[in-house]
Amino acid sequence: MPKAWVYAIGLNIFSQLSDASKHAHTALNNRDCSGESAETDGRKRRKIIQDEIENEDENTNEMDTGEVLIRPRCIAQGEFEAEVLWVGWSETLLRIDGRVELRGFSAYETETTKLLQLSNGANVVTGFGWADLIGIVDSYGQIWQFKPGATTTYIATTTYILYVDKELSSAFDNTVQRVTITGTEHVAVLHDYGTAITTFSSLPDFYAYSETKKKEWRVGSRKQFGYHQHLQFTCMRAGEAHFVALDSGGHVYTWGASLHGELLQPRGSVVRPRVVPALEGISMRDVATNGFVTACLSQDTKDVYIWGWTPDTRIIGLPNAGDDVAGIIDQFDEDEDFVIESVAVGNGFIVLASSNSITRELCVWFAGGTDLTNMFGLPRSETLVKVNGEWSGKRSDEYGLMVSCGAACIFVSVYQK
Asked: What are the DSSP calls for 111-144, one per residue?
């Protein structure tokens, strides 16, 4: 079995990047975690708890080293397959050695590391959510949810367990491949073996779908998009208020709100997936998005096209927000031996993984940045700068790289070929 490593760097306020429990959970366990009295806005609830943690010591404003990883830390390694399935604001879903681990803080789970065991033996193929882990989708296309279990009388906490949401799964005929949720709580479901996308205007509409499937929906509450069988979507991502998808032909589709040009559509916001006209004729291999920035990697792995808006540092190649043209990161144009292995987008920054057939060097590159990235040792930069890590000493003909991003964290997966 080939070896694999997963490294993490960034905001670790709720220990989602590591397996060490910090006082974030102590502060949480002193509250009612049943979910019944939680704030309806998850981001507001998260901010309240974070403020409590940061204000515990009035003599310092610095975060503990366990809360911000200022240099890459290996969080998983061994002779097994390791994969970052999903990254939320404060949770991470990892598949390690055939097991699935939920790491971080959630109103539904107070343990730092939780092994998710599915009763039918199915693998978890994706997680979905933007603040709390709302659910997961297994390899059989079934949607799983958390539900309350036994309540401990000594501490005000409720244990939550996984169960199959049969009603919701059957509403999509058990063919769900991915569920994505924007920061504004719009939901998109990729189903029917990748040939259909259904978009919901809110989480309640998504959960109510199983109960009202046979009823007439009010105008605007649900948009369903059916496609010919020969057109199959291979992936789907969500940003702050928009979605992006890629089909098997390498075409990029966007829909949702165009607040800062993140759709790259000449008419602004659109309600149904529409091919990006500025990229027609260019076959893409992968897409990534977060916040208000969207990027895609060309099929020849030489070019990264980027558009949208960053709240702070500009990225060379990023066009002005609202322009219906895509910029291109051409820092490596003259290097014919350079290949971009993977691309990921955070909230205001972009990360690339690369290899070189001549120098055989594996590299991770970073551009953009915010106050948070300054905090974990990656200064703001308009051009790509190299991120140092243990992967730098590995040969590209023996190892590969994949990068993933949350809003304020980066994961680097190294795998043996």
From this structure: -SEEE---TT-PPEEEEE-SSS--EEEETTS-EE
Which of 9-23, 26-40, 334-348 is the least confident region? 26-40
* 282 touches 305 (CB < 8 A): yes
* Cα separation values, 227 from 90, 195, 231, 255, 274, Å: 35, 6, 6, 15, 12
Is the distance from CB of 345 to CB of 291 less than 8 angstroms?
yes
Note the pLDDT of residue 159. Answer: 60
- Across 10-24, 160-174, 284-298, 308-322, least confident range: 10-24
**Cα–Cα–Cα angle for 49, 8, 379, rounded to 5 degrees:** 85
Residue-level length of the chain: 417
pLDDT of res. 406: 87
**pTM score of the predicted model:** 0.82
- The Cα 92–Cα 10 span in angstroms is 13
Nearest to 72 by CA among 10, 161, 28: 10
- Look up residue 299 and give its two tokens: 């099929």
Q: How big is the chain by its Cα radius of gyration, in Å?
A: 21
Residue with tokens 């004729």, as numbered in its chain: 281
